[in-house]
Amino acid sequence: MNTLEIKNLNVSIDGQAILKDFSLTIPKGEVHALMGPNGTGKSTLAKVMAGHEDYTVESGEILLDGENILGKEADEISHAGLFLAFQYPMEIPGVSIANFIRAARQARLPEGEDINAVEYYKELYAKMDSLKMDRKFTARSLNEGFSGGEKKRCEILQMAMLDPKYCVMDETDSGLDIDALRIVSEGVNHMRSEERGFLVITHYQRLLDYIVPDVVHVMYDGRIVHSGDKELAKELESKGYDWVKEEFAGAS
Ligand code: ADP
Ligand code: MG
Ligand code: MG
């Protein structure tokens, strides 16, 4: 059961169906890319996985190594081993990056157990070194006044420190500049392992030049309509999404 498995997920918002019997399985050790035209439900999927409350889950399951995480609170989902990175991370003035990550780590410990500060900083600095980050960075308030690249750096550091089993990154329509693109892709590539699975959501093929996916899925109208290898992403880049729409319109 070393998989993140989304099974027959049906999700609506204000009575309108968005995800339609959506299924996807990501084994540990693999990077899956989810692509598709705007408005197809990619971000909805990521938000539902994060425990966002605006959406109505009609049916389905999201199994993280066999444990259903649907309906759990965001912190429980994180605790279960899922990390979700979003295009617009929250700003928390007055809370340093170091303390924010420390609180997230503390929340995972059993009642009454405290983080060893010396060991925590040792690990934090070691991770920062391996990600080539300046140590001064951790003293800054979370995302406050950050450039796009700094936000991404902060996100990757959080991801590295939380050591999740699965990472979902919604970079859709983000227009990441080249600096941010490099930071995200180096961070993800650095964290690729047999022990971890990734779902990289992107509207554009560009990110996938840097994070080479094992599997590419094309989503349309709330479900996956095509899966293939990295060449599928290149095909989409040259042909666009119209053929997916046409094919789909013909089928339904
Ligand atoms: P994508 O990320 O693929 O561009 P989204 O998941 O953002 O697609 O949106 C899918 C559909 O759901 C769109 O039609 C969008 O308008 C609708 N939708 C998403 N979130 C909301 C919301 N909070 N309220 C109303 N409609 C929404
Ligand atoms: Mg969109
Ligand atoms: Mg989106």
What is the alpha-carbon Rg in Å? 18 Å
Q: According to CATH, what is the topology of the domain at 3-92 and 166-251?
A: Rossmann fold
| Category from helices, strands and their pairing | alpha/beta
Q: Which class of the domain at 3-92 and 166-251 in CATH terms? A: Alpha Beta
Oligomer: single chain
Secondary structure: number of strands: 12
Order of helices and strands: EEEHEEHEEHHEHEHEHEEHH
Query: Which small-molecule ligands are present, each listed once?
Result: adenosine-5'-diphosphate, magnesium ion
Helical residues, percent: 25-40%
Number of helices: 9
What is the mean pLDDT?
89
CATH architecture of the domain at 3-92 and 166-251: 3-Layer(aba) Sandwich
Unreliable residue stretches: none
Biggest sheet, in brief? Answer: 6 strands, mixed
User: Please, what is the CATH homologous superfamily of the domain at 3-92 and 166-251?
Assistant: P-loop containing nucleotide triphosphate hydrolases
Shape: globular
Order of strands in the sheet with most strands: 6-9-10-3-11-12
